[in-house]
Amino acid sequence: MLKRQLDIDLPSGTSLFLWGARKTGKSTYLKNQFPTSKYIDLLQARNYLKYSTNPSYLSEELAAIDNIDQPIIIDEIQKVPALLDEIHYLIESRNLSFILCGSSMRKIKAEGANLLGGRAWRQLFLPLCYPELPQFNLLHIFEYGLLPAHYLAKAHSQRYLEAYIADYLIPEVSYEGQIRNLSSFARFIEVISYSNGEMLNYSNIARESGVSSKTVQAYTNILCEMFLGYLIRPFSPKSSRQLITATPKFYFFDPSLPLLLRQQTIKALKGAEAGHALENYLMLELIAYREIRNKRFCINYWRSKTGLEVDFILNKGKIAIEVKISNSLANKELKAIASFSQEYKPEAAYVICLEEKKRLLTLVSRPIIIYPIEEFLQDLWQGKII
User: Fold this and answer.
1) Which pTM value belongs to this model?
2) What pLDDT digit, counting tens, does each position of 145-155 carry?
3) How would DSSP label each residue in 163-196?
């Protein structure tokens, strides 16, 4: 068992939506955290049929239980959106707490279902993050990924990931998104893997996928709504003709997935593919830290029209982060972050790399900290970065 970092502490009468992709470990976590809670799994056919046919059965069932002092857990809530009205009533009438767990908000939004009008907190449940790993090994992360069952597998990593893509990612996302052309969506998944961590060119992806640009945007939104990927927008503090201000970047929610989709493996921490994987991984750590520690900072990227780019801009320009798959950085590799630092004067500028020791550089009168990747992650999770 891996100790997860998330700590759910709900005040009396408060409920929670817990969202996250399949196999991130939501159900296991909740059963361990709330062993005495009533647990309803809507993936079970009998539960699905019972509550979808008659949502009021939930009220009747709970009326027979006195002194409910633990949250009632309902897993895969998106399967029966009509239950949310009944849950709303029980929150109001009996001051009960619920943890509503799901892997997609799409069906609930599409049906205009009751999202409890602010009576429930929202929390993402993510794959493994740095403090949860038994050991830190980037090559293992890139090969096995960060889904708990995959990460802990001692062999056959590719078979597990192939099954995840073939048996969940493509068919279930297609079902949730009401995608009729399964082959075009499967082709899109492969094509967008080549744009992982890159600015999205919807026209190029559409041409290679055999669908329209509008369809590509819809497919991308479905992946994000099912917590299988993230879009980050460009940083633009003011109107400027010299900046890219409209095109988002896309990152998969697990660094191993785009590598498998491209049928690539990383055997050594060098080269462009390892650099992209490291950038993807750091993006996921930033998201995990923000969610688990309940921080509220935005994540953007910066790119000028001359091609200078900084991977991550945090908290509206206060922190700049560049990721390099290098164990010996040269000053010429720091042109982009030096340019950003000179123009926008962030409070801190970091270059995350594979060097062994942390060091400080001063370029164009602005300090830049060169950070070994694991030391940066330690400081991030200790609250020393943001």
Assistant:
1) 0.93
2) 999 999 998 78
3) HHIIIIIHHHHHHHTT-S-HHHHHHHHHHHHTTB
